[in-house]
Design a protein that fits this description.
The chain has six helices and six strands; from the N terminus they run E-H-E-E-E-E-H-H-H-H-H-E. It has 192 residues and is an alpha+beta fold.
């Protein structure tokens, strides 16, 4: 049927094929999507489900891993560094872009130079209620998933239309093998 069976049910609880303490080797440039438990996250998921081709959405946030120890670069209230450890206990998908490490590092440095420290553009979230509207803008201000999509475009792995991209779209693309290989999907229940 082409439907991907997620190892995490939509209540965020692990199913039987739960992984052992994970031995994931994180690399700078890995990308991820995770659940967003806040009210804003629930609104994002509702909107994603409304426009999704499969009527499902699990992830409401996205980011980029920038060190093997789990440091991340993501759009929170500002575009800044955080850590994957902040998502312990949450469903997560981690994917590895199909590009050489040197290119990953170079493009991530360019992305940081362009966006680091910028405020989170809350106005863009409202634009996502109508996906064609979310595709408008200059690209100077991006939400979390647009930051990741812009990075993948800079790597030459994704089309240029990164504005309007949401975490559900990214996760679906990764599961289908588009531009990245999924290295983990499930409940993040191990220390990073």
């Amino acid at each position: 049927s082409g439907h991907y069976d997620c190892p995490v049910d939509y209540k965020g609880t692990a199913q039987d094929e739960r992984t052992e303490a994970m031995n994931i080797e994180l690399r700078p440039g890995d990308v991820f999507c995770t659940a967003n438990p806040w009210l804003l996250g629930r609104i994002i998921l509702w909107t994603e489900r409304m426009w999704s081709h499969d009527n499902e959405a699990l992830y409401g946030h996205a980011g980029i891993v920038d060190t093997p120890a789990g440091s991340t670069f993501e759009a929170l209230w500002r575009i800044r560094h955080a850590h994957l450890g902040d998502y312990i206990g949450k469903p997560i998908i981690i994917a590895r872009p199909r590009a050489e490490q040197g290119k990953l590092d170079e493009r991530l440095a360019i992305l940081k130079e362009r966006f680091e420290g910028k405020r989170y553009p809350l106005h863009r979230l409202f634009m996502h209620v109508l996906p064609p509207v979310a595709k408008m803008g200059s690209g100077n201000f991006v939400v979390c998933s647009e930051l990741v999509a812009a990075y993948l475009w800079m790597l030459g792995l994704r089309h240029k239309q990164y504005l309007g991209t949401n975490p559900d779209t990214l996760a679906d693309e990764w599961r289908q093998g588009y531009c990245c290989d999924v290295i983990f999907e499930g409940l993040l229940d191990f220390p990073i």
